[in-house]
Design a protein that fits this description.
There is one protein chain. The protein contains 13 helices and 13 strands. The protein is an alpha/beta fold and about 400 residues long. A 7-stranded mixed β-sheet has the order 2-8-7-6-5-3-4, with helices on both faces. Strands 9-10-13-12 form a 4-stranded antiparallel β-sheet. Strands 1-11 form a two-stranded parallel sheet.
């Protein structure tokens, strides 16, 4: 692709580290490289910098700094929250409630939990991917230990009614956890207002480095360690503190709070322009997820009579980076569990692509992407016997 224009439309997978973030991190690799838990002078710069970073990270969601516990990323934080809720000495019961469209960090973990005797209820969603608070309440049992519903879906971008779901959990004295990996720094979240007990996220989704995340644990909630070791993170998450990562995460959070509205407005405009052009100019295309209650930069679209993997590879060859709504690209023959959960047929799920813009994306990038997409869709459909049969059938109907 060296001779082609490269356009990155996969920001839900990861984002470019912001320059200010990298600049903030660099001194802690070679100059102030001391272990922050050391008593000697070399440990102090890192310790002080992590303290500042923790405050910025907490501030973005209305939390207290001491409620932020660093992890290696969102997946670890997800696992920590739910496993501790059902296995620890403070566990209320052995029943877990999750939505059917959670990230695989939740879904795969719950499948493991079921093998070791934990009961899991997978909540259905409507055609837009929204979890009903009434459905959540109906699923609660006396032995329910935790409810986990993501703030916004990573594939279709739908934003969930977490405030209402959190209120239901609080009413029944059940822990409420939300996976906010896609939403943190993208939309407004307030852990007190939204009745959140536990929240997990990852830095690399908002211009921060990979390999660092956190679990927010509301004061008063008791969790056992997932990783045992030293006394880091107030004794409940062992392992040497990733100082450069924490500092980078803190700077990314600080910047995200400052420009969140400006970024969201720009991304929504680009997203809607992309969606409108596709739905208007490409026949038999549809939007997956809620039309408005969705993440600013997310556009998940499906194209009839085409396999998403062929479409993805063709776009990639044209220098455009997107992701498929199907798991086929990772070696599985099963379509996305999220797209099936919202009621799509297998062939519809297989024909879906996710486009995710960022504040760095330009209108020219979007137009180039749509222009290329139109050409690719037309070419792939011209080779599809299903599309050929469909066109013939449509002509017969018109002639009749």
């Amino acid at each position: 692709m060296t001779d082609k224009k490269t356009i990155y439309m996969d920001n839900a997978s990861t984002t470019r580290v912001r320059k200010e973030v990298l600049d903030a991190m660099l001194p802690f690799f070679r100059e102030d490289y001391g272990n922050p838990d050391s008593i000697h002078a070399m440990g102090r710069p890192g310790r002080d910098a992590v303290k500042v970073a923790r405050a910025h990270i907490a501030d973005l969601i209305g939390a207290k700094p001491e409620e932020i516990y660093f992890t290696s990323g969102g997946s670890e934080a997800d696992n920590w929250a739910i496993k501790s809720a059902v296995f620890g000495p403070h566990a209320k019961g052995k029943h877990v409630i999750v939505s059917s469209i959670e990230h695989h960090a939740i879904i795969n973990m719950c499948e493991y939990l079921e093998k070791v005797g934990i009961e899991v209820t997978y909540l259905p969603v409507d055609k837009y991917g929204i979890v009903s608070p009434e459905t959540v309440e109906a699923a609660i049992r006396p032995d329910t230990a935790i409810i986990s519903v993501m703030t916004a879906n990573n594939e279709i971008g739908t934003i969930e009614p977490i405030r209402e779901i959190g209120a239901v959990a609080r009413k029944h004295n059940v822990l409420f956890h939300t996976d906010a990996v896609q939403a943190y720094g993208q939309i407004d979240i307030d852990v007190t207002r939204d009745n959140i007990d536990l929240l997990s996220t990852s830095a690399h989704k908002l211009g921060g480095p990979k390999g660092i995340g956190f679990l927010y644990i509301r004061n008063g909630v008791k969790l056992d360690p997932l990783i045992h070791g030293g006394e880091q993170e107030r004794g409940i998450r062992g392992g040497t503190t990733n100082v450069p990562g924490a500092v980078g995460f803190g700077k990314a959070a600080e910047l995200a709070k400052l420009d969140m509205k400006e970024r969201a407005d720009k991304e929504i405009a680009l997203r809607d322009h992309l969606i409108n052009r596709v739905l208007t100019e490409i026949p038999y295309s549809s939007l997956n997820g809620h039309p408005t209650q969705r993440l600013p930069g997310n556009a998940n679209l499906r194209f009839a009579f085409i396999e998403g993997e062929s479409l993805l590879m063709s776009m990639n060859m044209a220098g455009i980076c997107v992701s498929t709504g199907s798991a086929c690209a990772s070696g599985s023959l099963d379509p996305s569990h999220v797209l099936l959960a919202i009621g799509l047929k297998h062939e519809e799920a297989h024909g879906s692509l996710r486009f995710t813009v960022s504040a760095e994306t330009t209108l020219e990038d979007v137009d180039y992407t749509v222009d290329t997409l139109k050409s690719v869709v037309e070419r792939l459909r011209s080779m599809s016997p299903l599309y050929e049969d469909f066109v013939k059938e449509q002509k017969k109907k018109q002639e009749a």
